[in-house]
Amino acid sequence: MRAVLTDIEGTTTAIAFVHQVLFPFAAEALEGFLAARGADADVAPILADVAAAAPGVPVLDTLRGWMATDAKVTPLKALQGLMWRQGYADGQLRGHLWPDVAAALQGWAAGGLRLAVYSSGSEEAQRLLFGHSEAGDLTSLFSGFFDTRMGAKREAASYTRVAAALALPAADILFLSDIAEELDAARDAGLATCQLVRAQDGTQPSGRHAEALDFKAVTRLFALPQPA
Questions:
Q1: CATH class of this structure's domain 3-14+95-221
Q2: pLDDT of amino acid 21
Q3: Residues in CB range of 109: below 8 A, 6 or more apart
Q4: What angle do CA 86, 66, 95 make, to 5 degrees?
Q5: Any idea where the domains of the chain sit in the sequence?
Q6: Residue closest to 80 by CA, chosen among 28, 131, 143, 137
């Protein structure tokens, strides 16, 4: 392996953090955020994309509907990222990582592996979580952050694009996720795969991929560099 590509929710981070902390924070902040910053240069284009996606429907209603179903749509994820930025900046939010994650990432990077993230959350949200994590700022460990602009996570072509962006052969990249269908797509694109089966998140093993209970197990299973 020359690189590790990791999912976030259910892989580095508890599903509960995303669904019980991040999502409710954005939902509560939404109306006030739009009222205060809807005309800002970084917000107005996102709202235009929302309006284009559902013509004739009030933007707020479209966003509420997407939030209710956790729709994997780029405008929503981008907007959530901007709201979370403020929450991290003023200390209301800190990015959750499972205890095994930071040391493993640091060991892999120190051992010469390139690290990258591919998540349905926006690139902004990814950088915020790792930049304001409980283990400190880890963003310098990563070579890339990829979101739904690469395509859907259950489509093989998305992983081909990520490999191209990293300028690496697909076979040299290990993809970590808790979702079997994402791993299926990555494998179809030629990546090595491993399913994180964290008991705390209730993940069920698929039997279709290598399996690890945590990042320490990933290190052993794929003979990756050990933490110092």
A1: alpha beta
A2: 96
A3: 115, 141
A4: 35
A5: 3-14+95-221, 17-89
A6: 28
